[in-house]
């Protein structure tokens, strides 16, 4: 399986810390899987201008092609102004409408307070659904208080991240097997 983890913030360290932890968990428990970390902080992505995703170049082309080639996506996002960051929305805008078809997508959301726990439900899930993703129903919400010195210090959060990784890969494998069986049933 081709797994892509996206750290969608250009500022701060919390999103980067959480997504790197997801990468560590995948490497520890699923060492044979293809794994790519896309850290938008380290890339220069242009704003979407309506072109086909294949017509972009540089870091923008790298990100869009990597996402399109993924089987599984883990999206780490902070909460900015009660919504997802513009950097993440821009990635979605660069892609075609059905870009996430047959892709299993999990979410890790960061916020300064528990008041923003529904940002994933009201902002991110509708976009993922519109783009035809198979969304992992549960996501991990992490507050500022769960971080200290660029580490996750809440054991419950660490357990939830581990569970999210496991649930996501089980769901992705299940979907892949069902689709394989469906395609095998066609007589052409």
How does this model look, in words?
With 188 residues, the protein is α/β, with parallel strands linked by helices. Helices cover 43% and strands 20% of the residues. It has one domain (2-185): 3-Layer(aba) Sandwich (Rossmann fold), CATH 3.40.50. The protein is built from five helices and eight strands; from the N terminus they run βαβαβαβαββββα. Strand 3 (72-78), helix 3 and strand 4 (104-111) form a beta-alpha-beta unit. The radius of gyration is 16 Å and the shape is globular. The mean pLDDT is 96.
Q: How many helices does DSSP assign?
A: 5
CATH level-four homologous superfamily name: Flavodoxin domain
Task: Identify the CATH class.
Answer: Alpha Beta
- Output mean pLDDT: 96
Task: Could you tell me the CATH topology label.
Answer: Rossmann fold
Distance between the termini: 26 Å
Low-confidence stretches: none
Order of helical and strand elements: EHEHEHEHEEEEH
Fraction of residues in helix = 40-55%
The rough form would be described as globular
């Amino acid at each position: 399986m081709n797994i892509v983890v996206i750290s969608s913030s250009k500022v701060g360290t919390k999103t980067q810390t959480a997504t790197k932890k997801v990468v560590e968990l995948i490497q520890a428990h699923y060492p044979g899987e293809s794994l790519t970390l896309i850290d938008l902080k380290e890339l220069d992505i242009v704003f979407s201008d309506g072109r086909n995703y294949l017509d972009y170049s540089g870091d923008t082309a790298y990100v869009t092609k990597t996402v399109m080639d993924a089987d599984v996506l883990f999206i780490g996002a902070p909460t900015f102004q009660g919504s997802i960051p513009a950097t993440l929305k821009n990635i979605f805008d660069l892609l075609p409408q059905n870009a996430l078809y047959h892709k299993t997508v999990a979410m890790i959301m960061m916020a300064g307070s528990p008041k923003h726990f529904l940002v994933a439900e009201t902002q991110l899930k509708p976009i993922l659904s519109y783009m035809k993703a198979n969304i992992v129903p549960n996501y991990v919400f992490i507050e500022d208080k769960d971080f200290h010195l660029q580490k996750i210090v809440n054991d419950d959060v660490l357990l939830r991240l581990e569970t999210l990784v496991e649930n996501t890969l089980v769901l992705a494998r299940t979907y892949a097997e069902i689709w394989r069986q469906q395609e095998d049933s066609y007589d052409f």
